[in-house]
Amino acid sequence: MAKPDDTKVLRVAEREIPLLVTRNPRARRISISLYGSGAVRLVLPRRTPLQHGLDFAEDKAGWILGHLNAMPARVPFAA
Q1: What's the predicted TM-score (pTM) here?
Q2: pLDDT of residue 44
């Protein structure tokens, strides 16, 4: 995972979800990836304003929340 350029918080249904914002010069569209830790990665093309990306994430908040809720709980590794 690339180092995020910025970290924001997406508030959805009384839940705060870490939003890791990165810019990729090769990206042609905004994309969202989910991680098992509960974080969401938002990838923006180089010239896309940050606010457009945040608006996109808010528009997709229902999708994000549904997929995060569908993820199985993390199981700690015990030796």
Answers
A1: 0.81
A2: 96
